[in-house]
Amino acid sequence: MNIFNLTNEKIEEQVMSSNWFREDQKYLILCFGEEILEIQPIFNFAPETIEECIHIDDFVKMESYDDYDYINLNYFYLQEERLKFEEVNIYIGVNYLVLVLNPKGILKDSLKDVIFQKIEKLLKVDDRINRVYYLIFDRLLNDLFATLEEMEGSVQTLEEMVVQEANQKTLAKINYYRLVVNIMKRNLRPLLYVGDQIIVNENELITKGYLKYFKNIDIRLNKLYDFVIDLVERTNHLQYLYDSTLSTERNKISERLTIIATFFAPLTVITGIYGMNFINMPELQWKYGYPISMGAMAIVSIGLYILMRKKRWL
């Protein structure tokens, strides 16, 4: 657990002791999982929120309590085209901000870095809680946009593959991408309501000077959702593209078979006629019958070939 006192001009990390918390001080607290239980007696957080911090779920929500707001978010990223999730829990009060992260996740280092790098540049003491609050959402949104852009690149590459060849491998990848993008959509939709609730500012925890920055966060949340909707449409289009490519390949095969049948049809007629072996067929006894019939077959085949080339059927 990391505890930072934001009250003084110089921000210092504070050691946790029996009487470390003071009502007239401002604090940023980063803890992991069950560490939230250590500060629960001080802040008296609702038991259901503590349970959600300890046990990971996929439920995204924002709740306003008497003197603080609680937000439960799902952060996701791609790792070798597999969608990974981490839970982020945020408590914000008048004089504190508590961030609860997964100790085994990648987000803890990402958020700690951005906060630690910028925390000394926080100007006005009165705005420091709001500033850190904004920085957290800013970093989360940047990472989520990067994840969607990565997914967009994968979809574009798959589109090029499908145009070239439609096979079981590309079909399996299409179905997988559609699943991943729809999961992204399902997890991003609740963020729209979180953004709206932040702007409502029911507990007035965001100062008027910083409310405009959170309106920008709300706009970016809507843009993020528009982005994932576009990805859903593109992955659905992949199925139509696959069907179209498959239909085109089948048509090409049918054309080849038709051309082959066209070549062999007259030859089949000739061989069929002379395969009947009627007694009064003079050509059967003619010594030049075989070479002339073969020559006729060759002339017919060459003539068909020239005609098809002229008509650009070959």
Feature tags:
Methane Monooxygenase Hydroxylase, Chain G, domain 1; 7 helices; alpha+beta; Beta Polymerase, domain 2; 7-stranded mixed β-sheet
3D architecture notes:
The chain has 314 residues and is α+β, with helices and mostly antiparallel strands. The chain folds into two domains: 2-247, Beta Polymerase, domain 2 (2-Layer Sandwich), CATH 3.30.460; 252-310, Up-down Bundle (Methane Monooxygenase Hydroxylase, Chain G, domain 1), CATH 1.20.58. 60% of the residues lie in helices and 15% in strands. The protein has helices at 36-43, 47-54, 107-118, 128-164, 168-200, 208-274, 289-310; strands at 2-5, 12-14, 27-32, 61-64, 68-79, 82-93, 96-101. Strands 2-1-3-7-6-5-4 form a seven-stranded mixed beta sheet, with helices on both faces. The longest helix has 67 residues, at 208-274. The protein is rod-shaped and about 120 Å long. 22% of the residues are buried. The mean pLDDT is 83.
Quick recap:
It contains 7 helices and 7 strands; from the N terminus they run βββααββββααααα. By secondary structure, the protein is an alpha+beta fold. It has a 7-stranded mixed beta sheet with strand order 2-1-3-7-6-5-4, sandwiched between helices.
